[in-house]
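Why do we care about 3D structure at all? Because function follows from shape, and shape follows, mostly, from sequence. That is the central idea of this module. The next example makes it concrete: a single protein chain, its amino acid sequence, and then its structure expressed as C-alpha cells.
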Amino acid sequence: MNKRKKVGKNIFVNLLSYIVLIVSFSFLLFPVYWIFTMAIKTNPDILSYPPKFFFQPTIKGFQYILGLTKTVGATGVSAGVESFFLLGIKNSIIVVVISVLMSLAIGLPAAYVLARYDIKGKENIAFTILSFRFAPPLLVIIPLYLLFTKIGLYNSYFSLIWVYQLIALPMIVWIVRGYMEEIPIEVEQAAIVDGYSKIWIFFRIALPLAKAGIAAGTLLAFIYCWNNFIFGMILATVKIQPVTVQAMRYLTPDAIMFREVAAICIGAALPLLILSIFLQRYLISGLSMGAIRR
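And the structure:
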C-alpha cells in the first residue's frame, strides 16, 4: 500500500515538474514568438487590437531589409541599394570577428600566465582585467568619444574594434584561466623533463587541453560583442555602425516600421543562434566552470 502511494506521489511530482517546465519555457519563448510573428504580419495586423494570432503571413519585411523590394517609409532603402541590415551585418562581422581574434591573441597567453605563474599581484591584475567588464559603458563612452574625435579615429572600424576589447578580453581571460588551472601541472612538468620549451608546451599541451574553455570564452565574447549597442551608436555613424544600431534606422519621424524592425531583429539573431547550436555544450560548461570559478 505504501509502495503504491509512493509510486503515485512520484508520478504526481514528475507531472507537476513537467507542467512547470512547459509553462516556464512557454513564458520565456513568447517574446521570440511575438517578434517572429510581427516580422511576417502586415502593418494592420500588427496594430490590431485585440492581437491577431491567426493571419495571412507575408515575407515583405524580410524582402525589404534585404533591399529586394520597396516599402512606404522614409528610410530611403530601395531595390538595388544596400540595405541597412546588410550594411549592419557586414560591419558587425568585421568589428566583432577582428575584436574576438585580437582578444584571443592577447587573452590566451594572459590566461596561461595567470593560471600557471606565481607573479606578484596577479590577482589584482586579473581583477583589473575583469573590472573592464564590470564598468558600465556610459562611464567611458564620453571620454572615448572625445578622444577618438580629437585624434581622428571617430567613425572608424579601428575605434570600434579597440573598444570591443573591453568586452571580449575579460571574458576570454577569466573563462580560459579557469580551464587552464584544471590542467594537471604534472603534464607540463613531464614535457619540461623531456626537453620541450615553454612556448611548445603552451601551444601543444595547454591550448589543446583547454579547447573547451577557449570555445566557451570565444562564444560568450562573440555574443556580448555582437549584442553591444551603446558603443556602436555613439562612436560611429551609419556607414560603420553594427546591425544592432542599424535597426534604429527603421524608426523614422514619419513612421515606425514595426515589421521591418522585427525582421532585422530576427536576422541579427540568426548568427548567434547558429553558433550557439554548434557550441552549446562548450557554452554550458563555460558558464558552469570558468565563469564562476573565482
